[in-house]
Amino acid sequence: MKMKGRSIFTYDVYAPTTVTTMLRPRRQEGQSIMQEGFNIEPQVPFSEYIDIYGNPCQRTILPVGRVVITTEVQAQVNATKAIPSPPPAYVLVGDLPDEVMHYILPSRYCQSDLHEINMLAMEIAGNMVPGYAQVEAIRTWIHKNITYQYGVTDASTTALDLARNRIGVCRDFTHLAIALCRNLCIPARMTVGYLDRLKVMDLHAWFDVYIGGDWYTFDAVQEKTEGYRIEIAHGRDAADVAMVTQYGNATLQSLHVEASLME
């Protein structure tokens, strides 16, 4: 299926501000990039690099004044990968590939080693067969028990905060899911990008887990994980996949996002 996405970030910059961005899509299996654009107005030179997770990144210095960053993509993507029958099995920690091991460790926003997280993981999925059943139980529990609402969490909100307050947005849902999975020794990572089935269009976050020797997508915001997605970046948590990271005096004034399927 062909899918397109577009994001427009508008900033007021009060002093020359260095930024790094993750706004260009990944090139990977199941996602063929047909066309893309990345533009900064007023035009400034920028460099590009690939981070340790394979995400394409951009780096520049924003000038003083109104700055608009626009990114566009058209891609051939597959539907969210279905879970096979029988479902994929749990992979013992001793059998995990080396490159997956850091996805079972605690991280800044996903404090999977805390007692409170462990108690919640045990309550939700402690008596289930390790692997897919536990992950889906966690995803379903979050969907049913956490209220989705803008404006009540911020960049400092962690998985533990959400476990206590039980209200937030996709970023928060994903952090809690990751922390609970990792507590059960199931590797989990945060992924961000475009999803075609959002009630309120925005850049979206979901989580992938490593079971059965492969990565599978789970989305706690949705009643059922489905739809088409364009992946921009993935990492341990939001600290690794921030769309824009700034080192200076600039204020985001607006963000406009579009995502849709193409005929």
UniProtKB/TrEMBL annotation:
Q: Which domain of life is it from?
A: Bacteria
**One matching Pfam family, short form?**
Transglut_core
Q: Where is the Transglutaminase-like domain?
A: 162-222
SMART domains from the xrefs?
TGc
This chain belongs to the protein called Transglutaminase-like domain-containing protein
From what organism does this protein derive?
Dyadobacter linearis
